[in-house]
Amino acid sequence: MGARFGRDARGPLAGLLVAALVSLACAGGGLAEPEAERPGANPPAASPGPSTTRADSTTSVAEFEQDVADAQAVAERYWAAQFKESGQRFQPIRRIIPYQRDGEVSCGGQALPRNNAVYCSQGDFIAYDVTWSVAAFRQVGDAFVFYLLGHEYAHAIQVRLGINYSFTIQQELQADCMAGAYLGDSVRSEALTLAEGDLDEFREGVAAVGDDPDQPWFAEGAHGTAEQRTDMFFRGYEGSLKECDLG
Fold this sequence. Notes:
- By secondary structure, this protein is mainly alpha-helical.
- The protein has one domain.
- Helices cover 41% and strands 9% of the residues.
- The protein has 6 helices and 7 strands, in the order E-H-E-E-E-E-E-H-H-H-E-H-H.
- It has helices at 61-85, 130-140, 142-161, 168-188, 198-208, 226-239, and strands at 2-3, 95-99, 106-107, 110-111, 117-120, 125-129, 192-193.
- Helix 2 packs across helix 3, helix 4 (168-188) runs parallel beside helix 6 and helix 5 runs antiparallel to helix 6.
- The longest helix has 25 residues, at 61-85.
- It is globular.
């Protein structure tokens, strides 16, 4: 997957429910923090390093870091264009924080565990376990990085739009749809170029973070089954933000 920076992926955020941005300085406001995004019950154990070569040669930490930077840049240009179309000012998240140890980063006074990627509304940042994320990058492919960051960035957009559902799963499935919309629209506008196999990597990556099929819909921290998450991601990917129930 490659990023280009010559065009905007433009399109209106129709029917926004909230005109004003949620204050980013509010320590206790915003969404309940999403649970960890975990690829299966036994996440890859590889640590950052030169080994574990994939057929597509996506191996190095430097490649991973470049993909994170590209994904952030494309996401922020995309959402800036959407907010501009709706007459609002877009404010990017404050930062993205990689970490390696339990408790190295905290959100609202709560230490973040390993094998985790999360948007923290209190600090307005995305944090991810770099060891787990690089292992997933090597196992699934570089498209997974764009999905993962797109999903967490979607949570930041939900905060900015004042979206807060009763059940976690509603928040999470909408974020999957929004991540799909950002990626699909960016491909259609040629801000992103798909390589062979990237769509399969999206499908594999989204399915890998699905809940157990027996997980109740209303369970605290539920994100959706592999089928539900894949359906919502590709609904957004193919149909853009109008499929994501933004209002």
